[in-house]
Specification:
- This protein is an alpha/beta fold.
- It has 2 domains: 42-329, pyruvate-formate lyase- activating enzyme (Alpha-Beta Horseshoe), CATH 3.80.30; 362-435, Arc Repressor Mutant, subunit A (Orthogonal Bundle).
- The chain has helices at 4-11, 31-41, 76-96, 117-130, 150-159, 173-179, 185-198, 216-228, 260-276, 293-299, 340-348, 362-377, 382-389, 391-406, 430-435, and strands at 49-55, 57-58, 70-71, 102-109, 138-143, 163-169, 202-209, 233-238, 280-282, 286-288, 304-306, 309-311, 318-321, 326-329, 332-336, 354-359, 379-381, 413-415, 419-422.
- The chain has a 9-stranded mixed sheet, sandwiched between helices. It has a 3-stranded antiparallel sheet with strand order 14-15-16, covered by helices on one side. The protein has a 3-stranded antiparallel sheet with strand order 17-19-18.
- Helix 3 (76-96) packs across helix 11.
- The chain is globular.
- It binds S-adenosylmethionine and iron/sulfur cluster.
Length: 452
């Protein structure tokens, strides 16, 4: 049995989620604008890219929410924002100089589902003018079921959505009251049925553990209800309570939050329920039906991790549009201006909206690869490391693995000549082990959510 308290006390309880390396708090102010032109010039015309669009609006404000979004009661600000997005897409296309092929498009937020069909149509048209969309491009959209009307379904069909990612969180009314997110099982079921009836789209459901007033029984009932909806994928995230960064989270009573032990137990029980129902466990918090491409990627070592979590998307370049969106290029990361009004001013004047950024060193690229493999496969294969970066360049990192394994007093990892691996029972601590390889962690207390 691992001693969770001792492990977290010893290694630090707050670590990044490693959806990028370095994590976004390490991007430098001002570096982004300086970096962007050279980064764009590095886009390889022969390789497909992925595209992310951020919609920072919701028609409700859930108290648990950690996303960059704002509640709006009027639709005009959304229309105006879409105007700015289209301007940014056109400027970026002109700057790139050719129309890149898109492997994957993701609309996230906020709630892209609050867009009306006219806005989905305008966005789809602008993207198809700027990029080439092959027939097999993956087009996914984050959906708050409380938004979905016949007009939304029409808009999603115009966009060509292939995957709907549905926010559920928890179906229990007491938990929903504590997070200000009423949402019945029946309404969610009907939206999923309507999305399925409208076309070829696969369904992902987001659920959370660690929410206020959540008991093991309440969470298990929610997971049973999620399973009964038969989604192709489930994401089971731990609630990240960061009230210093998200003021509305102060509406959640700290005394209602489950403790560390309950969080660990809840995650394990929910995970066992999902695998018991036939889902394959993917990385630290995803589940997929065995035939799903995500499960196939995990089985064959081709799983990746990006800002949306686990993905089959292997593109080197991710172009992010919208306030706060992050782009990833071969040589580094660039994040757009975060406040929506300032973002709009920049792109409406014909500029790009780069703000912060980070230029990757060779050391970052190798550590980023190792951290991604740990988060995806729970294992770093030394032969693959040498194949990717060369025997000589990889050698110091292999030595670092062996040194870390030798110093591991908690029984989290094993290492030999072939690999460095997280023990199966230590998988909940994958973020902690990944953080051992993070050369940028400087005890930046308070910036990250709890590791477990
Ligand atoms: C942009 S929202 C999903 C779409 C839509 N806005 C909705 O709420 O249904 C993305 C997901 O992030 C997760 N999320 C949001 N805040 C979180 C937090 N503080 N900790 C962990 N996960 C969080 C939720 O599971 C949520 O479904
Ligand atoms: S959870 Fe979704 S609907 Fe709720 S505030 Fe966050 S982004 Fe908006």
């Amino acid at each position: 049995m691992l001693d969770a308290a001792a492990i977290l006390n010893r290694h630090g309880a707050q670590v990044p989620r490693y959806t990028s390396y370095p994590a976004a708090p390490h991007f430098g102010a001002e570096t982004g604008r300086a970096l962007l032109p050279a980064m764009i010039d590095c886009i390889d015309p022969e390789k497909p890219v992925s595209v992310y669009l951020h919609i920072p609006f919701c028609d409700r404000l859930c108290w648990f929410c950690g996303c960059h979004t704002k509640q709006t009661r009027r639709y005009q600000p959304v229309v105006d924002y879409v105007d700015s997005l289209l301007a940014e897409i056109a400027t970026m296309r002109a700057r790139i100089g050719f129309a890149p092929k898109v492997a994957a498009l993701h609309l996230g937020g906020g709630s892209p589902s609050l867009l009306q069909s006219a806005e989905f149509a305008r966005i789809g048209e602008a993207l198809r003018k700027a990029f080439v969309f092959p027939a097999d491009a993956e087009i996914s959209v984050e959906i708050d079921p409380s938004d979905v009307s016949a007009d939304t379904l029409e808009g999603l069909a115009l966009l060509g959505m292939t995957r709907a990612s549905i926010g559920v969180q928890d179906f229990d009314p007491a938990v929903q009251a504590a997070i200000n997110r009423p949402q019945t099982f029946e309404a969610t079921r009907d939206v999923i049925a309507a999305l399925r009836a409208a076309g070829q789209c696969s369904i992902n459901i987001d659920a959370l553990y660690g929410l206020p007033l959540q008991t093991p029984e309440r969470l298990e009932r929610t997971i049973d209800q999620v399973i009964s909806l038969d989604p192709e994928r489930v994401a089971l995230f731990g609630y990240a309570h960061v009230p210093w960064a998200k003021k509305h989270q102060t509406m959640i009573r700290e005394e209602d939050l489950p403790g560390r032990e309950q969080r660990l137990g809840d995650a394990a029980r929910a995970s066992a329920k999902l695998t018991g129902a036939g889902y394959a466990a993917i990385g630290i918090d995803h589940f997929a039906r065995p035939g799903d491409p995500l499960a196939e990627a995990a089985r064959t070592g081709r799983l990746h991790r990006n800002f949306q979590g686990y993905t089959t998307d292997a593109c080197e370049t991710l172009i992010g549009f919208g306030a706060s969106a992050i782009s990833r290029f071969r040589g580094g990361y660039v994040q757009n201006i975060v406040p929506t009004a300032t973002y709009r001013q920049a792109v409406d004047s014909g500029a790009l909206a780069a703000q912060r950024g980070y230029r990757l060193t060779r050391d970052d690229v190798i550590r980023g690869y190792m951290i991604e493999r740990l988060m995806c496969d729970f294992r770093i294969d030394f032969a693959a490391l040498a194949h990717g970066f060369g025997e000589v360049a990889g050698a110091p990192y292999v030595r670092e693995c062996l040194r870390l394994a030798a110093g591991d007093r908690d029984g989290l990892v094993v290492s030999d000549e072939q690999s460095f691996a997280i023990r199966p029972e230590a998988k909940p601590f994958a973020r902690v082990v990944a953080s051992w390889f993070d050369a940028h962690l400087d005890g930046g207390e308070g910036r990250y959510s709890k590791a477990v």
